Amino acid sequence: MDYVVVHELSHIGNMNHSRRFWQRVASVLPDYQARQRYLKQNSYILQWLR
After folding, report:
1. Given a cut of 70, is residue 35 above it in pLDDT?
2. How many CB atoms sit inside 10 A of residue 26's CB?
3. Nearest to residue 27, comparing CAs of 42, 44, 4, 7?
């Protein structure tokens, strides 16, 4: 959940997925890549929550 919140809030300053955007995400969540990977690998589990 933290990754999703930080990702979306980072769009306030960068409405794209540029290097600057990912630097902003990394400044809050240095392990964002692992969290992103986990979310992609387990998204099928989370779909039933809709």
Report:
1. yes
2. 14
3. 7
